[in-house]
Amino acid sequence: MLSVHACPLAKLGGLDSGGMNVYVRELSRELASRGIEVDVFTRWRESGDERIQELAPGARVVHIESGPIRYIPKTEVFARLGEFTAELERHVAAEGRAYDLIHSHYWLSAAVARRLAPKWRVPTIQMFHTLGLVKREAMTEEADAESDERIDIERQAVRESDALVAASEIEASELMQLYAADPEHICVLPCGVDTDLFRPVRQVDAREALGRDQCERLVLFVGRIEQIKGIDVLLDAMGELFRRRPDLRHEVCLVVVGGALDARDDAPETEKVLELRRLVHEHRMEDNVDFIGSVDQQRLALWYDAADVCAVPSLTESFGLVALESMASGTPVVATRVGGLQTVVAHGESGLLVPAGDHVALAEALERVLTDHRLRMHLAHGARSRAERYTWSRVGDGIEALYDRVLAERGAEV
Ligand code: UDP
To answer: Which residues pair with 62 in a beta bridge?
Structure first.
């Protein structure tokens, strides 16, 4: 498993750590439990990590040194991929291991897979998690403009990989339309959720555990603090909500989970938080918005249970684990009608869908869910039952079958 910039052991919700780290972690554990041995190769980023750490019996994380052992921006990770690959090869040679297959995550790993696969003579399976061309269409902030190199690498990986995993039918059609992927090579496999960890718990108990007011109405946002997550739109929507319904100003609170609030952590994200705080000030919402930084998934589960509604206002989203985790907790979702979110959230059944970037529509939907008790109960029930379909064991079944197919095809060629 190649996951150059997403370590499965990483602290989640900070800069560049989120759904992909969870996916690699859960899939590796799932495969190992089926007797498929997994080594995850990732860039060494945390000085407290050991070079090799066990994820589960049969699944290891191997940290590869390339560049300083700390956070570095993706451009620098990219510039050091040659070094990463050489170090990885040295490690594999020293251990004397051989692999049957490469499963690569994100475009940075695709560049490494491309160098290793011909040397090792093994098939490659690629999952992008987000696609550069899709992101480019959705973004306006210059700093996040996706590089031409990224798009080139994605195009090559689409052409050369033995199979592509897409998290939704929407991603599959993006691969076909934007990257000319062969439909025969695409396996559509939605992500999973741990329904034991994310489960409905009484709201009063969750609020008590978190020390929150029992009377407030709580809107929850969870995710990396980046423009792509639509957090600016959500703050404008909250401002709009309070303009239409001034009475709600005394009751409704938005809790923002995620992001590095400590400047020593991830400086660029802190800047974004400062920008958002200015937006909060513009809308006079200082008493209504709390930024609490990132939390681990055990604590996050309590936040989903404490919330009345979870807002997922992303500008683009290949899948949207946060929406699924909220649903598993029995908390309705108000999400944008983009990417995988349209397949995860069933409009009127487990949440409401609104157009991306439309703060007025988002405000209306939030108002409906917050003020219509019957609707909220209906969506809460639908949310949990829909989430139960998405298990990691189902993901494991799909990936195991894909490995078998790809290896059989390779065997037939030789
Ligand atoms: N997450 C977390 N703590 C945080 C913020 C996020 O554990 O403070 C996790 C969350 O549970 C989810 C993942 O990060 O599993 C975010 O995944 P999603 O697919 O929603 O977004 P991505 O990061 O892939 O864009």
So the answer is: 41, 52
